[in-house]
Automatic annotation (TrEMBL):
Protein's organism: Rhinolophus ferrumequinum (Greater horseshoe bat)
Database matches in InterPro entries: Ig-like_dom (IPR007110), Ig-like_dom_sf (IPR036179), Ig-like_fold (IPR013783), Ig-like_Receptors_ImmuneReg (IPR050412)
Gene Ontology, cellular component aspect: cell surface; plasma membrane
Ig-like domain ranges (all copies): 22-99
Signal peptide feature range: 1-18
Highest taxon above the source species: Eukaryota
Record gene name: OSCAR
Record-given protein name: Osteoclast associated Ig-like receptor
């Protein structure tokens, strides 16, 4: 039995492992596509199906996980699609998966090129995003600001909150690992946070970002204060001038004849 298993591994390994370049023409043995249902990001305990679809009829499919030499699973089917079932997944089952296939008409030991890697993430929470203001967290009067919530994965749904308000301020679905939330400058000052989650059930949520404070640069109030300072300075100068005139008049009167 052990000898049979070793022979099977040697059959899978040469052409399906990603570290070895196949010697067959790429066009003759195109790679399959690997997908996950219900999603590639799930919480622990969810049943996940990895679907390997070949571009031509196949006979046997193999599923590989990064870091493991032997196939995780294989399926013998007489069609273009093979399904690999992962029941009640755990975080340990997360990782990078690939699949390959072979056709009964091919030479012995010949397998297709491996599929592109599929990253399966099994977690209760997604990594905390960051929240930054573009171009600056200090907004000048009349200018607008954009808040960027950045996570680590693409194709997520992003949500922006403003502290003191229970309902989300904005939603945004993004194919990039970030989303931009535009805010009008007049209403921008405040404290904000964001998070992101998978776009479809079963939902996996990230933690909230650290709070971000948006403030006004107060240039209008600064001009008002400067004007007041100038007015106070002029008033002070007038008072000093009047006091000087009073003193001079008093000294002149005290020196006049008959003043003794």
């Amino acid at each position: 039995m052990a000898l049979v298993l070793i022979l099977q591994l040697l059959t899978f390994w040469p052409l399906c492992h990603t570290d070895i370049t196949p010697t067959v023409p790429p066009a003759s043995y195109p790679k399959p596509q690997l997908g996950a249902q219900p999603a590639a990001i799930v919480t622990p305990g969810v049943n996940v199906t990895l679907r390997c679809r070949a571009p031509q009829p196949a006979w046997r499919f193999a599923l590989f996980k990064s870091g493991e030499i032997a196939p995780v699973l294989y399926r013998d089917v007489s069609e273009e699609l093979a399904e690999f079932f992962l029941e009640e997944v755990t975080p340990a089952q997360g990782g990078s998966y690939r699949c390959c296939y072979r056709n009964p008409g091919w030479a012995p030991g010949v397998w297709s090129h491996p599929s592109d890697a599929l990253e399966l993430l099994v977690t209760d929470t997604l990594p905390r995003p960051s929240l930054v203001a573009l171009p600056s967290p200090v907004v000048a009067p009349g200018d607008n600001v954009s808040l960027r919530c950045a996570g680590r994965m693409r194709n997520m749904s992003f949500v922006l909150y403003r502290v003191g308000e229970a309902a989300p301020l904005q939603y945004h679905d993004s194919t990039q690992p970030w989303a931009d939330f535009p805010l009008p400058g007049a209403r921008a000052p405040g404290t904000y946070s964001c998070y992101y989650h998978t776009p479809a059930a079963p939902y996996v949520l990230s933690q909230r970002s650290d709070p971000l404070v948006i403030s006004s640069d107060g240039s209008g109030s600064s001009d008002y204060t400067l004007g007041n300072l100038i007015r106070l300075g002029l008033a002070g100068l007038i008072l000093v001038s009047l006091a000087t005139l009073v003193v001079l008049d008093w000294r002149t009167g005290s020196r006049a004849p008959g003043g003794v």
